[in-house]
Amino acid sequence: VQLQASGGGLVQAGGSLRLSCAASGITFSGYAMGWFRQAPGKEREFVAAISGSERSTDYADSVKGRFTISRDNAKNTVYLRMNSPKPEDTAVYYCAAKAWVVARTWDQYNYWGQGTQVTVSS
After folding, report:
1. Sign of dihedral through CA atoms 23, 56, 44, 111?
2. CB neighbour class for 57 (10 Å; exposed up to 12, middle 13-18, buried from 19)
3. pLDDT by residue for the chain (122 residues), tens digit each?
4. Distance from C-alpha of 4 to C-alpha of 118, rounded to nearest angstrom
5. Neighbours of 35 (CB within 10 A)
């Protein structure tokens, strides 16, 4: 199983950025996908998740209304659109996969990508 995250970089506060995560080695539509992030000196935290059927999404309160998670099951890819990012969104962002339903706790996810750095400048 491989999860390959991409799309990170430097973005100005108030701008926009889209992260992608391409999956291989799993039946993608059978897996919920999540995005987590970890800033230096902080614990890994939940950002957003989407069910395999796309019917269910969940967001951390800190990103609700600014970030949007989506997926394209034909391309085995999950996305995180980051609108109006803030400096406090600066972190390494990880995508993760778990069977079936969405979850907020990282230890419920079976597979992880390598992470992509997002830096938001003020």
Report:
1. negative
2. middle
3. 999 999 999 999 999 999 999 999 999 999 999 999 999 999 999 999 999 999 999 999 999 999 999 999 999 999 999 999 999 999 999 999 999 889 999 999 999 999 999 999 99
4. 15
5. 26
Q: How many CB atoms lie within 10 A of CB 3?
A: 23
Tokens 């969104």 locate to 89
Residues across the chain: 122
| Nearest Cα residue to 60 out of 72, 73, 49 | 49
Residues in contact with 42: Cβ distance below 8 Å, sequence separation at least 6, in sequence order: 91
* HSE (side-chain half, CA atoms, 13 Å) at 39: 10
Residue 47, amino acid: V
Please report the beta strands in 41-113, taking only residues with DSSP state E, as ranges in sequence order.
Answer: 45-50, 57-59, 67-72, 77-83, 91-99, 111-112
Is the Cβ–Cβ distance between 118 and 93 less than 8 Å? yes
What are residue 38's DSSP bridge partners?
A: 92
Q: Tell me which residue of 101, 99, 105 sits closest to 1, measured CA to CA.
A: 99
